[in-house]
Amino acid sequence: MNLKNAPVSEMTAWLAARLGKHVSVTLDSIDNLQGHLYAMEESLLEKAILKREREFRSGRTAARKCLMELGIKPGPILMGEKREPVWPEGCVGTISHCSNYCLVLVSQSGGMARYRRGSSSTSLSLGADIEQLGRVKPHLWPRIFTERESTFLGTLGQSEADSAATAMFSAKEAFFKLQHPLTGLWLDFHDAEVAPSEDNRFTIKVLKDLESPMPGQLYPGSYAEWQGCCIAIMEI
User: In whole angstroms, what is the distance from residue 66 CA to residue 86 CA?
Assistant: First the structure.
């Protein structure tokens, strides 16, 4: 499906359709997401440059839109030790920015026990990433991609390889956000391998023993090119 020049509403609907019905999605320009911050959130920005402040504000504004859509009373969304967002109890979510846009996914969470029972109304974890196309240059490939991934990229033409490299990088970033709340680990790029497939989908194969409640070693996701960016999303 060609979503490269789709309006925000169409892209948001496509993302939502790739996730469970219980997941709330907000995608919009950073300019349109400059809502209020709570005092506790403002205190986190005392030394932030303007760009960082605008990104932070857009993420919190988008997150509160998602929470309200889920019927959850919004409140401050603070930061953990690694600057990750701390979601309200009973919720999971993920925030990502590129130069112009902000993407947030939020869902209610029933924890591992409910996940194992096959609940269709909650998520165990969410991951999302939005990246500018063309920034993952070939000289960066050895740092980011496994030998198998680099070999695959080497079979493509330059333009196609640029797009695929961004999509694969974005998929890894989305997976890192997906797994971190469950494992507490900060993975190396070579710890996960991406296999793109048809219909704007991919699978992440974990090459490291996570020693955690992560359910398995293969994790599916979806990606799309949109407005000069690549978006990758994942849910378990």
Answer: 15
**Residue 87: Cβ within 10 Å count:** 21
Tokens at residue 104, please?
């947030």
- Cα 225 to chain centroid, rounded: 14
Helix axes of 147-154 and 158-183: crossing angle, nearest 10 degrees: 160
CA angle 106, 91, 183 (to 5 degrees): 95
And the tokens for 173? 């970033």
Instruction: Compute φ and ψ for 128, nearest 5 degrees.
Output: -150, 150
Token representation of residue 227: 């407005």
Q: Name beta bridge partners: 79.
A: 85
Identify any residues that bridge with 101 across adjacent strands, giving them in sequence order. 29
DSSP letter for each residue of 147-216: HHHHHHHHTS-HHHHHHHHHHHHHHHHHHHHHHHHHH-----GGGEEEEEETTTEEEEEE-S---SS---
Distance in angstroms (rounded) separating the CA atoms of residues 150 and 26:
33
pTM: 0.94
Among 213, 187, 192, which Cα is nearest to 203's?
Answer: 192
Summarised one tens digit per residue, pLDDT across range 78-124 is 999 888 999 999 999 999 999 899 999 999 997 655 555 555 789 99
pLDDT digits (tens, 9 = 90+) for 189-229: 999 999 999 899 999 999 988 877 677 789 999 999 999 99
Contact 193, 205 (CB under 8 A): yes
